[in-house]
Design brief:
The chain contains 15 helices and 22 strands. With 485 residues, it is of the alpha/beta class. The strands form 6 sheets. Strands 13-16-17-12-11-18-19 form a 7-stranded parallel beta sheet, sandwiched between helices. It has a 6-stranded parallel beta sheet with strand order 3-8-7-6-9-10, sandwiched between helices. Strands 4-5-22 form a 3-stranded antiparallel beta sheet, with no helix packed on it. Bound molecules: nicotinamide-adenine-dinucleotide. Nicotinamide-adenine-dinucleotide binds next to α7 and α8.
Length: 485
């Protein structure tokens, strides 16, 4: 499909390209429109969060009377439009957020289209016995309030919408302000798809300008029965304190262990492939490596052959001062190292240019050897920088990897052929996703079995969310009858 950019969008993309090749593009004016694309006004975008909630509630009431079979047609149409418009959303997503890679974002949208479960995920259960029959069904909540991140903006809006609609809900989004045009494009896509497939005009709504205030209106509205939050620790804490039923998909810092039984060449390639996917934006992507000392040189050599560039310890310290900045919490006054937003999801060559190293597009990952305490190991960077820590044996590897995961219980990876080692680490780290001998994205169904999601709910336990995560169980009892034996 041809992309017809507006002048303002072209100007923004030129600025982004200039800044990525090291030129001056200091004045960054937001040129993206949260209400329209290419002259087409988005459907379901409101000035006022209350109006958005009311519109989604009307949509929810409309789909309550639809048969499951009809609801599945909405999902099929969403799949179709997502495939068709993947490139547009990937391109706007990179241009608006200045993060990630267009080719990988296209792959992420296709993954959502192909591997997000639909109504087949909604399964009723029956129990019969001496006392008759009891039916348990998965019912919608009503209107779901969903907070979405800047890292996978349209992917999360579409994936969540598919599951929530398959479950029979209407949805209101409070998307990340830095990805509002991309997120609202996806909201519009869902509404276009649903309407074309026989659904209401608006089933999914969002606001023109999301803020913490609009999020608060969402938390407090009696029409919102479930909150689903995908983002960092601050926002997950906020929804879990809302007093409403909430699903929280929070931050990770996935460690990788490579032991001396692994296929080292494959491990090197898999780790670089996973770590550099969409420039390390996915929360599941490899963030730090713990390599056995006796295979570490071979592993690093394999990484260098697969697009990695190794920097020295001094260069790593210099880069750390650029990609992590001191931010003071205005309430507590505590100063904390925080990732510099301008560096998140950037190409490796752009990050290297910040320390005066000039490389070409063939370099996709920056690697370095560090100690366990280095900020690159401890902080969730979300950029293609991969620290490697040498360890003596499996005990040290597990101890350090578990500590680096910080109890997020999100995702961990291991390359090994030793079943005991694999099992020990999986048990110790207790993550929602554990990937063995593959790139991280195998954990969300990309080259691995199982369905996909962009909302991995570790803190609240739903795990790899799907339609059934957005339902409430209801029981109907027929005493003494309807048993046929
Ligand atoms: P973020 O935490 O900056 O923002 C997430 C959303 O929350 C945005 O819409 C933001 O505007 C909003 N927000 C932030 N604080 C809020 C508050 N106090 N009240 C209401 N809304 C608030 O996230 P980001 O930088 O876009 O995404 C990256 C983070 O999200 C990383 O930590 C990553 O690991 C995590 N993430 C997790 C998953 C998962 O499935 N577990 C998926 C994607 C991203």
């Amino acid at each position: 499909m041809a992309i017809n950019w507006t002048d303002a969008q072209i100007e923004e993309i030129v600025k982004m390209v200039v800044s990525q090749i090291g030129g001056e593009a200091k004045k960054e004016t937001p040129a993206f429109d949260s209400e329209s694309y290419n002259g087409r006004k988005f459907i379901g975008i409101f000035e006022d969060m209350n109006d958005a909630i009311n519109a989604a509630n009307a949509g929810y009431k409309a789909i309550r009377s639809m048969r499951v079979e009809e609801r599945e047609k909405l999902i099929s149409k969403i799949r179709e439009l997502t495939r068709e418009e993947a490139e547009i959303m990937a391109t706007i997503g990179v241009a608006e957020t200045k993060m990630g890679r267009v080719d990988h974002k296209i792959a992420k949208h296709r993954l959502v289209a192909d591997k997000t479960p639909g109504t087949e995920d909604i399964i009723s259960q029956v129990k019969t016995g001496d006392c008759g029959l009891t039916l348990t069904e998965m019912a919608p909540f009503g209107v779901v309030g969903s907070i979405t991140p800047s890292t996978n903006p349209s992917e999360t809006v579409i994936c969540n919408s598919m599951g929530m609609i398959a479950a029979g809900n209407g949805i209101v989004f409070n998307p990340h302000p830095n990805a509002i045009a991309t997120s609202n494009y996806a909201v519009d896509l869902i509404n276009r798809a649903c309407f074309a497939a026989g659904g209401p005009k608006i089933l999914v709504a969002s606001v023109k300008k999301p803020t913490l205030d609009t999020a608060n209106i969402m938390y407090k509205s009696p029409l919102i029965r479930l909150l689903v939050c995908t983002g960092g620790p601050g926002v997950v804490k906020a929804v879990l304190s809302s007093g409403k039923k909430a699903i929280g998909a929070g931050a990770g810092n996935p460690p990788v262990i490579v032991d001396d039984t692994a296929d080292i060449k494959k491990a090197a390639k898999d780790i670089i492939d996973g770590c550099t996917f969409d420039n390390n934006l996915p929360c599941i992507a490899e963030k730090e490596v713990f390599a056995f000392d006796n295979i570490a040189d071979e592993l690093i050599d394999g990484m260098l052959k697969n697009g990695a560039y190794k920097i020295t310890a001094a260069q790593a310290d210099e880069l750390a001062k650029i990609v992590l900045v001191d931010v003071k919490n205005p309430k507590t006054g505590i100063v904390k190292k925080t990732v510099c937003r301008d560096c998140v999801g950037r190409d490796a060559k752009v990050l290297l240019s910040k320390i005066g190293v000039s490389v070409g597009d063939e370099v996709r990952c920056i690697i370095c050897e560090t100690g366990f305490d280095h900020l690159f190991v401890q902080e969730e960077l979300m950029m293609p920088i991969l620290p490697i820590v040498r360890v003596k044996n499996i005990d040290e590897a597990i101890e350090k990897a578990v500590a680096a995961e910080h109890g997020n219980r999100h995702t961990a990876h291991m390359h090994s052929k030793n079943i005991d080692n694999l099992t020990r680490f999986a048990r110790a780290v207790e993550t929602t996703i554990f990937v063995k001998n593959a790139p991280s994205y195998a954990g969300i169904g990309f080259g691995g079995e199982g369905h996909t999601t962009f909302t991995i709910a570790g803190p609240t336990g739903e795990g790899i969310t799907s339609a059934k995560s957005f339902t409430r169980l209801r029981r109907c009892v027929m005493a003494d009858n309807f048993r046929i034996i």
